[in-house]
């Protein structure tokens, strides 16, 4: 019978010699491939370590379950499962997010429970009163017996799937379902017409501005406002989350973290010319593990600027930019709350197709 110990992944200067980090990375990637059937979400040890170095705004403990056999051997294959925690330190300090997984060949042995119990003890020690977690699925189940809908009523998960069953057994409530969608490139030629129509409706009061990972000083404060509003303007379902405030200092620190992780952003925003402020934005996140896939990261139109097709405008313009600046990309993946009908309609019109989703869970600690 396999026995294991729970250990914390050290935050080393480099990946060299940090076998727990390599085992943590391998375990994450095993879970990703078993869940999604592809390598689009895979991560590298260097990228993960880069995310752990800066903990100014979030504490980020990383735990692993390590097989006790060959206890003196620093072998990444001994890592059987992992837990990643995010403990906000500025806003939403009442909550913690926990993500855990077990390699497919080692499930149903209690490893996940052991990681969860250790993680929950750490969360309680940090004074948190709420835990959030996500469960991924590559295909949303059809409506019917054996499915569970969130408090929003939009989307479903299979109640007897491993992740939902694990969450339900521990008292979590399903508060939201997200849809994962993929756009295959190159894009349809109709995209150009969609951009032209959106530009015509937006009118001369709006113009496009763009940058890569480093926001121009001219726009850094306006960009911080967009990121702050992203935390509350995007649908949250029944999740008990408050405003997450961004400012110029946080943006600069995060940009340094992107660099340390080997990530690149392609940001495109719509300026409201009369007020010289940013009304909307979207961005792609390019990761170091692939040259054929990018994440469609945040997209937001400020409430006071909605109804002018700015969402369609910034997304079509950034897709055209992606084709020019990153011609090797063949897939774009994006997430949306199932109740976010406006943004989902834009994505469907652009050619995104459903490719899975996630349940968003919440547990109130007594």
UniProtKB/TrEMBL annotation:
Domain named N-acetyltransferase: residues: 60-135
The name this protein goes by in its record: GNAT family N-acetyltransferase
Pfam families assigned to the protein according to its UniProt record, in alphabetical order: Acetyltransf_1
Species in which this protein is naturally found: Cellulomonas fengjieae
Region span, Disordered: 129-156
Gene3D superfamilies: 3.40.630.30
UniProt xrefs under InterPro entries: Acyl_CoA_acyltransferase, GNAT_dom
């Amino acid at each position: 019978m396999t026995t294991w110990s729970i250990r914390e992944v050290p935050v080393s200067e480099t990946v060299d010699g940090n076998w727990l980090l390599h085992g943590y990375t391998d375990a994450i990637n095993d879970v990703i491939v078993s869940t999604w059937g592809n390598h689009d979400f895979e991560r590298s040890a260097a990228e993960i370590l880069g995310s752990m170095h800066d903990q100014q705004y979030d504490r980020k403990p990383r735990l692993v379950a390590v097989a006790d056999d060959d206890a003196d051997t620093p072998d990444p294959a001994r890592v059987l499962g992992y837990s990643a925690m995010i403990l906000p330190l500025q806003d939403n300090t009442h909550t913690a997010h926990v993500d855990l997984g077990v390699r497919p060949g080692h499930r149903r042995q209690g490893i996940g429970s052991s990681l969860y119990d250790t993680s929950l003890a750490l969360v309680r020690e940090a004074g948190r009163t709420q835990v959030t977690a996500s469960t991924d699925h590559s295909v949303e189940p059809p409506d019917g017996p054996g499915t569970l809908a969130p408090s929003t009523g939009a989307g479903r998960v299979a109640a007897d799937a491993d992740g939902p069953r694990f969450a339900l057994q521990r008292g979590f409530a399903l508060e939201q379902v997200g849809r994962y969608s993929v756009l295959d490139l190159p894009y349809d030629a109709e995209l150009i017409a969609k951009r032209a129509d959106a530009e015509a409706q937006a009118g001369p009061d709006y113009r496009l501005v763009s940058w890569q990972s480093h926001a121009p000083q001219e726009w850094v404060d306006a960009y911080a406002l967009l990121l702050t509003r992203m935390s509350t303007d995007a649908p949250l379902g029944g999740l008990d989350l408050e405003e997450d405030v961004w400012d110029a200092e946080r943006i600069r620190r995060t940009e340094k973290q992107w660099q340390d992780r080997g990530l690149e952003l392609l940001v495109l925003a719509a300026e409201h010319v009369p007020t010289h402020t940013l009304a909307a934005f979207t961005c792609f996140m390019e990761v170091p593990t692939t040259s054929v896939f990018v994440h469609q990261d945040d997209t937001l139109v400020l409430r006071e600027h909605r109804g002018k097709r700015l969402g369609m405008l910034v997304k079509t313009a950034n897709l055209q930019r992606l084709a020019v600046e990153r011609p090797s990309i063949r897939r774009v993946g994006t997430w949306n709350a199932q109740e976010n009908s406006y943004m989902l309609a834009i994505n469907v019109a652009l050619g995104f197709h459903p490719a899975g989703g996630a349940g968003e869970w919440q547990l109130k600690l007594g």
